[in-house]
Amino acid sequence: METMTKLEEYLDGNFSALSGDAYHAYADNLNLDLDDIEDWAQDCENDYLGEFSDPEELIFRLVDEGVIDLSGIPDHLIHYFDYEKFARDFMIGDAWEMGGFYFWNR
């Protein structure tokens, strides 16, 4: 019988919409010990934005969900909004990515 890792034990005992890979990405980026997952798992879950193919896809999702509010931009100007450039700037300080998993930068 194989011994479960701390991550497997955590995932087995706690409902989470995140995959083990998302926890690994979070731990790797922040140099956290997977054996101490109980100490930082909630922060990971709170900071998790989702899995996306690129930052621009993340921005489209955040706009669709109302997290980024573009309602102040008049209809005749909204088509000038540059999602790609906004995504680039967003990733400079507001969020980070590892392995396709995106997290708030807090």
Percent helix among the residues?
40-55%
Number of domains: 1
Largest sheet: 3 strands, antiparallel
N- to C-terminal separation? Answer: 40 Å
Element order: H for helix, E for strand: HHHEHHEE
- Which regions have little confidence, pLDDT < 50, spanning 5+ residues? none
Radius of gyration: 17 Å
For the biggest β-sheet, the strand order reads: 1-3-2
The tally of helices reads 5
Q: Any overview of this molecule?
A:
The protein has 106 residues and is mainly α. The protein has one domain. The protein contains 5 helices and 3 strands. It has helices at residues 6-13, 20-30, 37-47, 55-64, 83-93, and strands at residues 48-51, 95-98, 101-104. It has a 3-stranded antiparallel β-sheet. A hairpin with a 2-residue loop joins strand 2 and strand 3 (101-104). Helix 4 (55-64) packs across helix 5. The longest helix has 11 residues, at 20-30. The N and C termini lie far apart (40 Å).
Key features?
106 residues, mainly alpha, 5 helices
Short description:
The protein is mainly α and 106 residues long.
SSE inventory with pairings:
Elements: H1 6-13, H2 20-30, H3 37-47, E1 48-51, H4 55-64, H5 83-93, E2 95-98, E3 101-104
Antiparallel strand pairs: 1-3, 2-3
Helix pairs in contact: 4-5
